[in-house]
Design goal:
Elements lengths: L1 H7 L6 E7 L1 H18 L5 E7 L1 H5 L3 E5 L8 H25 L3 E5 L2 H13 L4 E4 L12 H7 L2 E4 L4 H7 L5 E3 L14 H7 L8 E4 L5 H21 L4 E4 L7 H11 L9 E4 L1
Parallel strand pairs: 1-2, 1-4, 2-3, 4-5, 5-6, 6-7, 8-9, 9-10
Helix pairs in contact: 4-5, 5-6, 9-10
């Protein structure tokens, strides 16, 4: 993050940073970034504010907009939520103009953050984009937005800086993937299976329905149905529903009970973790 510290600079007073993230994953990565900044510049006084979820608030970021109230899925929900997104956009832009942060750090969430980057950059606020949009995979035309509106791009995949430089963006720095230092096994396969009453010698399949409430409600039932089909072909298969920290086991168990209400619950080894 050398380029980032160089951009923000050193101040006798506090360093004021606006930070905006949406969805559980962005919230977790933003919170980790906040903690890393405080650790790397232990002598500095930071003031963070922006769009937050639970982990950012726990890390001490002042919540101007609660991003967890904007979590949606599906085109119909997007249409219904447009007034909320527009309100959040206007609130964040007004806060940035009133408080004039040393920089705005926009984390992932490109459909919201790229328009916000445009508004902030046009008003003279430095924009740092953390977790660059995967333009090399789709909607590459948005590279012109990055080139025009972003002062520093922080990439998490090693090949991304070269791709961006080929497209005229030189203000890019590879900082590593945020999960590289976070995802570690808490215990091995045998201990995990013992904890969840599973057989370590049998195949184990993870079901990952997502972090949003609506995702759990809509995606988990067909996942369970698919698991039942697999179980009929492979009776030795076992299944674990892996939950995001934003979802409770009781939520998943209620959905599972409903999905298995046809009397097939004894025919499948299914656990929640």
């Amino acid at each position: 993050m050398v380029m980032m510290f160089s951009m923000v600079g050193q101040h006798d007073e506090s360093i004021r940073l606006m930070i905006v993230a949406g969805e559980a994953s962005g919230d977790a990565h933003a919170a980790a970034l906040v903690r890393a900044l405080r650790e790397k510049a232990a002598g500095a006084r930071f003031e963070f504010f922006g769009a937050t979820e639970r982990e950012m608030r726990a890390a001490g970021v002042e919540s101007i907009v609660r991003a967890d109230e904007l979590a949606i899925m599906g085109l119909l929900e997007v249409g219904r939520a447009l007034p909320k997104f527009w309100g959040a956009y206007k609130t964040l832009k007004a806060a940035a103009l009133a408080r004039r942060p040393d920089a705005a750090i926009l984390v992932d969430w490109p459909d919201f953050n790229l328009p916000l980057a445009r508004a902030l950059h046009r008003r003279g606020i430095k924009v740092i984009y953390y977790i660059s949009p995967q333009l090399w995979a789709w909607r590459a035309r948005r590279v012109r937005n990055i080139r025009r509106d972003v002062d520093l791009l922080l990439a998490i995949l090693p090949f991304e800086p070269a791709w961006y430089k080929e497209h005229g963006i030189t203000h890019v720095e590879f900082v590593g993937h945020p999960l590289a230092g976070e995802v570690r096994p808490r215990y091995g396969r045998v201990e995990f299976c013992v904890r969840h009453n599973l057989d370590p010698s049998r195949p184990l399949i993870a079901l990952l329905p997502g972090s949003r409430r609506k995702e759990l409600q809509r995606i988990l039932p067909p996942m369970i149905d698919a698991a039942l089909h697999v179980s009929r072909a492979r009776p030795d298969a076992q299944f674990v529903v892996a939950l995001a920290p934003t979802r409770s086991p009781d939520e998943a168990k209620t959905i599972i009970d409903d999905a298995l209400s046809n009397g097939l619950s004894d025919s499948i080894a299914l656990r929640v973790a």
